Every structure is written in structure tokens, then in C-alpha cells.
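Margin note: ligand = NDP.
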Amino acid sequence: NTTATTRTALVTGSSRGIGRAVARRLAADGMVVAVHYGRDAAAAQETVELIARDGGRAFSVGADLATHDGVLALVEGVRAGFAAHTGEAALDVLVNNAAATGSGGHLGDETPEQFDRVFAVNVRAPYFLVQGLLPVLRDGGRIINIGSAVTRIALADELAYAMTKGAMETFTRTLANVVGERRITVNTVAPGPTQTASLTAAMAAVPELEGMLIGGQALPWVGQPEDIADPVAFLASEDGRWITGTVIDASGGTYLG
Ligand code: NDP
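Resulting structure:
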């Protein structure tokens, strides 16, 4: 009976942006959250403090997901962290959110090193994170990958990045079939343009941007990190138990046609 057990979640890249909103929402739902970050330990600590202020429980773990050693360090850090905070090295919800987002990926002047890096962070790391954490992921657990609407909207300057998100959609569908027997679900939530710090800066620099974004959507506001965190929380909850292997578009209906 898992109802009496404290549920736990790892949200990669939750030092800021969408990951931070997801970490805060899952903590508000009662989970103990491992707040992972790449470089910005202070920002991760701020996420932990925001969660504590709201009455939740969280701790931070740093690891560079561009390297395999970093992935292994994250697996160890998460196991040790949950053992210390809950008495058991067990995980209920893994949210693969961290991504190399600003790396472009247009054919023009891209180097093989840049291409490899975006695939390492966005595809290889989640793959081996799942490999490392499956032994401690409880039956009935959840794996939620943060994808992107760029798998259906062709943006030339995000070619390699879009390919990584396509790979993650395939990972989602096939992995769902692999782990389903244990009642573990695997899904992708695919945001459209979402107002994290970089979009806020772009909107300040280009006043017409907000209208352009809204003009391309069915719904009339710029997507907020919380607009992504809420469907993630739904998939993570008991209510999401029958949904697996799928992609949920969370883009306010961007470019529906
Ligand atoms: P941000 O760029 O704001 O934050 C990225 C997060 O990932 C940070 O916490 C960062 O940690 C971490 N990260 C990046 N590189 C590494 C690395 N090498 N090793 C470890 N951690 C790393 O991301 P967003 O909130 O904008 O995006 C979150 C997810 O949503 C991504 O998967 C993205 O592809 C997707 N998405 C976002 C959209 C948007 O408009 N914002 C649209 C569609 C999809 P740190 O800063 O500590 O290094």
C-alpha cells in the first residue's frame, strides 16, 4: 500500500524556468522533490527555499548532464538524498526536463561537437538516467519527458534541437511498452513558447513579440511555466494512471492551422 508512503520526485533542470515550476507544483502536491541543476547552485537553492516557504520539502543535487559521469553522479545523489530525507532510496516520479535549449542547431555553421552536446544533454542523459533510476523507481511510478512543439512545427534554426525532441517522443512510446508491466507510465508533455527568463527578455527587447506569439495560438496569452507544470502534475497523479506512451501538447494550440 503506497498511499501512506511519502512520494518522491526528481525534476532535472529545476533551478529555473519550467523545471522550477514543475518542482514547486509537485512539492505542493506533497512530494519530496530533488531539485537538480547544472551550473547554478544558488538558483537551485532558491527553488528549494521557495518550496520550503510554501510548506514543502526539497533538496538540491548538481550534475552536468553533458557527461555520462554527471548522469551517474545524479543517480547516486538522488538515491542518497532520498535515503537521507525519507529513509528510503525510492523514487516515484522522474521528470526529464533539463535540456540544452539555446544551442540552435541549424545546418549552416554547426560543428559535430555542438551537435553531440545537444544530443548528450537532451537524449543520452535521460536514457541513462532512466537506466540508473529504474531499480529504485517504485511500481506505479511515472516518467515524464518535457518535449517541444518543434517536433510538429518546423523551425529551421532549431533543427538539431528538434531532432532531440523527436528522439524523446520515440523513447517515450517504446519505453512505455517496456515498463508498463510494472504500472509505470511514460509520457511527454510538449510545450510551445513558454515565458521563462529568456522569453521575458526577448519580449522586452521586441515589443511586437507578445502579439506575434498570441497571434499564432488558439488561446490568448503567452504560455507560463505553470501552464506546463499543471499537466505534468496531472500525469504524475493517480488520475493519470491510464495514460501512457503519448505526447500531450501543452502549447495553447500553437499553429493549429
Ligand atoms: P531553461 O533554459 O530556462 O533551463 C534549463 C534547465 O536545464 C536549467 O535548470 C539548467 O540548469 C538545466 N541544464 C541545462 N543544461 C544542462 C546540463 N548540461 N547539465 C545539467 N543541467 C542542465 O529551460 P526551459 O525552462 O526553457 O525549458 C525546460 C524544458 O522545456 C526543456 O526540456 C525545453 O526543451 C522545454 N521547452 C521549453 C520551451 C520554452 O519556451 N521555454 C518551449 C518548448 C520546450 P543550470 O541553469 O543550473 O545549468
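Residues 93 and 142 are 5 Å apart (CA to CA).
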